[in-house]
Amino acid sequence: MKPLKNVYLDHNASVPLCVEAINEMQPWLTGSVSNPSSVHRSGQRSRAAVEKARGQVAKLLGCQPSAVVFTSGGTEANNMAIWGGLGWPPHGHLVISAIEHPAVMEPAVALRDLGVEVTFVPADNQAVVALESVREAISPNTRLVSIMAANNEVGSLQPIEKIAAMAHDSGALFHTDAVQAAPWTDLQPLTISSDLLSLSSHKIAGPMGIGALYVRPGLDLPPFVRGGGQQGGRRGGTEATALIVGFGAACARTRAIRDESVVRVSGLRDRLETRLLDSIEGARRNGSESRLPNTCHMSFAHCDGNVLVARLDLDGVSASAGAACASGVAGTSPVIDALRLPAKYSAGSLRLSLGYETTESDVDRAIHAIPDAVHAVRESGLEVTR
Amino acid sequence: MARVAVAMSGGVDSSTAAAMLREDGHEVVGVTLQLWDYTAENLTSGRGRCCSPADIADARIVSDQLNIPHYVFDHSDAFEDHIVQPFVQEYKNGMTPSPCINCNRLVKFDILWKLARGLEADFLATGHYARLEPSPARPQLHKGIDHSKDQSYFLFDVPVERFEKVMFPLGGLAKGEVRATARRLNLPVADKAESYELCFIPDGNKDNFVEMRLPIAQRRNGPIRHLDGTLLGHHSGLHRFTVGQRRGLGLTSAEPLFVVALERGTDTLVVGSSEALAAKKLNAVRCNWVSIEAPTKPLRAHARIRHRHNEVGALITPVGNDRVCVQFQEAQRAITPGQGVAFYDGDLLLGGGWIEGT
What is the ipTM of this complex? Predict the structure, then answer.
């Protein structure tokens, strides 16, 4: 009854674990694994594996290994950057955009509740943060500016180098959440521009539960997770050896095949987008021209995006209506709000995000399935009001 | 085999319904409506509410075990607008609402039914204890075989055409058989406790719930009068009372006193003896006919005036558009405005309406 294999077009939510990571992780999952901080030979082997992986992450970032702090994922990396970037106890002025991932947004809101001054810079209707608005927001009291490198929902790339320069000109630190950009862009220019940069392993085909924060050498960042003084006192907790070696392998793989994938995948994405816009009435494409090459974000008039995603899943196409984190929560995201869509489009968003392994036949399946699904959802009689 | 969307609450009934349909070879799709906004309050106070995070997790575990897809749709806004707000307003105005009947008409067999259509399901199935039998004219809705669990009363206000695409897999089973089936299939919810309260008031404290949403200035306080006109005291809001209620009046009298009526214009609570609660007729409005066409002449049937009421013989006389007058063979106690009255011919649910008064 189930047709063919599943077409996975939700890479912005998570990328399937790559074989390179699985192979590297295998011995660290099945064997007797010691604490990397232990003195004995077994501990030494864990330590070496962790440090080798740190080097692989550093290579992807274009930095020295000692600048890489392993965290439990992108969310912790962002929390560490936002809390730590304001010193201890947190003080001064924080500038973030209104379309940041919740892992930046929520710590900023919490800090505001604690009395820290926070400015949320708006984005234009292509989900791009306007340079002028950033310039206006930054004041001599600004201590940290945090703007994502690429938006996770619509994929719009942000003018990071220019914003970083503005922050630095004013004496502030600059952090970028590069979680979503990592599989698709050269990270070195971002690293060079930034004081702090967040990465997540599972967005680049590594295991879930591990990520990293780049901390510019010489920057004294207070720890966010306090504990046994691991990682130079910057992040307490025993390093998760298996996850870290998997992350390292995924970084090496990303470096090796990213550039060719960008070219191939952007072609597939463009075809998908063009064909869907041609075949579905009342469809529009969202985001800026300059965006992630894998992300296709569309809105369909008079269509409930959450039902559409379920309907597509039954046809074997995995997609999402927005960010996976927000599933099960009614209402639109701040990113969709930023697009200022006409009301009839506002509930009908669909995010299709391709990956390195996406094939032409995957895209053809989606091109075939989506128009019928949109039609079925529109015909269901569900009121679409949001 | 058909594609069937099953409404899954995470309880034993809907989980078993899904499992049975799967055993029958249908393509089953689990659907859960999240009807309460758990982000707006802390999660501990939401525990035990219908479609709480724990219940949704149960539905997900069951779906995974059955190897069926499962989707959660948040319609808490609609539930608030269509069910919770009117519930509070009706109590405020001295009525006794019946939110489950409205939920079936406005949520389960509307929003959920349309969701099933959007998923291109051939049928929507729920764990209701009721039986549907196809008929050339229109679907015939019968009580569940297990009369102690029968839920047909709550379905009287659903537009009949919706039932053409509905399945009730549990209608032919007794509750014990449902649990036995759940155990045989190793469903993790086989022994899960049942809730008898309204899903959005899990602690059963209706007054507390209503008062959290009804500012003191909006409460309708007023006099308490005996049927004979004597002023007996004052009450702090009509919402605390329902017809037939004895507790909470704060009166001392020789004979036991019961709420006989709640008068809206004057916000008066009228009390009287037990005998004063008996009435031989009621008027019902906004009638809906399920298994038969709307009658044009008086109809002999049995009427049920609340859940768990043993229906009694009655003559139902149409008195204009969507209205009927129901005359009982014997007087009934505490006929309550705001409740539904359902009409039966044996096990067949004919239809029903909303009690306006006696």
Answer: 0.88
